[in-house]
């Protein structure tokens, strides 16, 4: 069996909390609290969770836009978690990021052709004619016309700007791409076009993709596997079909139940979670989900932190972190709803 392209082990990110006039660090907030995940070559992994669960922080750490506090990131069997200087710059050729809001990363005074070519220039790839040729080729790949290279960002629609964002990332011919909520800011009609484009490009260019979203409906179409994140931790991972047919963690079940079904004759029992995601500054004891979990068992869920363990549905790759679904307490009766 070939090694995964990307292996994340016990990854942690702490941000300092500062207060007072001197802005002294008085503590830290743990945005990512020990995440382990493998991503295989050529697959798309969907990473889903509510706002503030740490999924974007995780994505940014993977492409080394922010430095991990602890843990390792192995990419093509090399530990890249703490690379610096020229090694980090060289690694960035192989990993790229697509952002939710490409507008903010485009220079409003520069024609988009220049913005798309920027990475090539920074890395000294090709002469000006070769870079021009690659920009034209990439605009065509993402469904834009060559004359668009001379236009400015404000002249494009949201969907077109996201195509420019994709062109900027892919012109570097990366092996691994983190797409951070790339369709969240788009109209529903445009979302499908951008999702289809990403799916086609992933196949044509043999890309490996981590697709971050806050909605399970968005990742269903594009993912081979899905990881669900809650308050800095992964709570369930499995292949796409198992997750949508047999969600195991109560949080995954709640997320799935909130997806509208476009058929008025089908009745889905919606699980409405109480309260907001707790603050990562002071995460709950035991299972981090217990204050909102509809089946939490007192004395277990609020005391012991569950590990990611095999669900035992015949799929080795289906793991969940829930006492009542995996491990020694799995035969406990859920608390009555
Ligand atoms: Fe709910 Fe307990 Fe499972 Fe956590 S461990 S998800 S609180 S049942």
Helices, strands, pairings?
Elements: E1 6-19, E2 24-39, E3 44-48, H1 55-62, E4 70-75, E5 78-79, H2 85-92, E6 95-98, H3 102-105, H4 112-122, H5 128-141, H6 158-170, E7 176-180, H7 188-204, E8 208-213, H8 216-220, E9 225-230, E10 233-239, H9 240-245, H10 250-257, E11 309-310, E12 319-320
Parallel strand pairs: 3-8, 3-9, 6-7, 7-8
Antiparallel strand pairs: 1-2, 1-4, 4-5, 9-10, 10-12, 11-12
Helix pairs in contact: 4-5, 4-6, 5-6, 6-7
Structure, explained:
The protein has 337 residues and is an alpha/beta fold. It has a domain at 244-337. It is built from ten helices and twelve strands. The chain has helices spanning 55-62, 85-92, 102-105, 112-122, 128-141, 158-170, 188-204, 216-220, 240-245, 250-257; strands spanning 6-19, 24-39, 44-48, 70-75, 78-79, 95-98, 176-180, 208-213, 225-230, 233-239, 309-310, 319-320. The strands form two sheets. It has an eight-stranded mixed beta sheet. A hairpin with a 4-residue loop joins strand 1 and strand 2 (24-39). Helix 4 packs across helix 5 (128-141), helix 5 (128-141) packs across helix 6 (158-170) and helix 6 runs parallel beside helix 7 (188-204). The protein is globular and about 70 Å long. It starts with 5 loop residues before the first strand and ends in a 17-residue tail after the last strand. The protein binds iron/sulfur cluster. The site of iron/sulfur cluster has 13 residues, from loops.
């Amino acid at each position: 069996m070939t090694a995964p392209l990307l292996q994340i082990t016990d990854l942690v990110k702490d941000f300092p909390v500062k207060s007072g006039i001197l802005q002294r660090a008085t503590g830290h907030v743990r945005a990512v609290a020990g995440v382990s995940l493998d991503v295989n070559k050529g697959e798309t992994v969907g990473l889903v969770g509510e706002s503030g669960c740490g999924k974007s922080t995780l994505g940014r750490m993977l492409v080394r836009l922010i430095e991990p506090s602890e843990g390792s990131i192995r990419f093509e069997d090399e530990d890249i978690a703490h690379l610096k200087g020229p090694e980090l710059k060289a690694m960035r050729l192989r990993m790229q990021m697509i952002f939710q809001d490409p507008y903010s990363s485009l220079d409003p005074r520069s024609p988009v052709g220049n913005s798309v070519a920027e990475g090539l220039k920074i890395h000294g790839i090709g002469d000006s004619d070769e870079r021009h040729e690659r920009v034209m080729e990439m605009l065509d790949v993402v469904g834009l016309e060559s004359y668009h290279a001379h236009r400015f960002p404000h002249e494009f629609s949201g969907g077109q700007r996201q195509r420019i964002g994709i062109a900027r990332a892919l012109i570097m011919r990366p092996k691994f791409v983190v797409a951070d909520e790339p369709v969240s800011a788009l109209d529903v009609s445009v979302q499908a076009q951008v999702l289809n484009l990403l799916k086609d490009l992933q196949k044509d260019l043999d890309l490996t993709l981590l697709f971050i979203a806050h909605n399970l409906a968005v990742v269903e179409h594009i993912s081979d596997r899905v990881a669900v994140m809650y308050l800095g931790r992964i709570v369930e991972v499995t292949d796409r079909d198992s997750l949508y047919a047999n969600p195991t963690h109560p949080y995954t079940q709640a997320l799935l139940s909130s997806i509208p079904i476009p058929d008025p004759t089908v009745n889905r029992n919606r699980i409405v979670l109480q309260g907001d995601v707790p603050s990562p500054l002071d995460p709950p004891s035991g299972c981090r989900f217990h204050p909102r979990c509809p089946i939490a068992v007192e004395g277990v869920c609020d005391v012991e932190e569950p590990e990611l363990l095999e669900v035992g549905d015949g799929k080795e790759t289906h793991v969940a972190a829930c006492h009542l679904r995996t491990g020694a307490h799995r035969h406990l009766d859920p608390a009555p709803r």
